[in-house]
Amino acid sequence: MEQLWTHIIEWLHGLGLHLDGDSARQVTQGAGALADAVGSGVAQATSGLDMPGLLALAAALGWASGFRLYAVVFLVGLMGAAGGLPLPPGLHILQSPVVLTVSGVMLFVEFFADKIPWLDSVWDTIHTVIRIPAGALLAAGVFGADNAAMAVAAGLLGGSLSATALATKMTTRAAANTSPEPFSNWLLSFFEDGLVVAVVWLATQHPLAFGVALVIVLVLSLLLLMVLIKFLRMVLRGVSSFFHGSVKVA
Questions:
Q1: pTM as predicted
Q2: What number of other Cβ atoms are within 10 A of residue 241's Cβ?
Q3: Of residues 15 and 40, which shows the higher confidence score?
């Protein structure tokens, strides 16, 4: 930076604009101090993005995308745009006003669609083709093209976590929708809303604690899936028997 300012001063001299020695030194030193300050600020902003932090962020984006994709995109993008979270270069696109606007609108729509019994299951079914690849892309974007091997690994991890979260959400909601009252559905939906915020915060502030919590949640998700799949099969068999019985009586 100081060399650049030296060249600029020499160029000004060539135009007939002369600075005395003291003024030139002050300008050059001031430019150097500004460069040091900017470099220090950038280093401080990116210091939290070490390897555990990057892995935690990739896992959080992948897993949370399985049940609240638009909330994840909007929240992380907003934090990056506001300077609260130094995003890796591969995720800078989330700070774009266009991405923030679209994700914000879809977040608003999903917030209400997810609170209506059975409509939430239809919404989740439609988004099976969106959430899983989106979770993989977001996780891969944490490392970007500069680290292709880690980006591919993160993409595979993010896609798998997104699929697991989506399967758990869909089966849980389907089981809740078999109940005539809507309160269990509402409680689950509001719980997921808060969970997105908690996941992003924990992954960015305490990545190691997030890793432990994620392992526990994955184990519980697998157990819940096994129980709920058996429950849903029993419900489907009961419904099928009811209709077959009605046909026989007729």
A1: 0.70
A2: 10
A3: 15
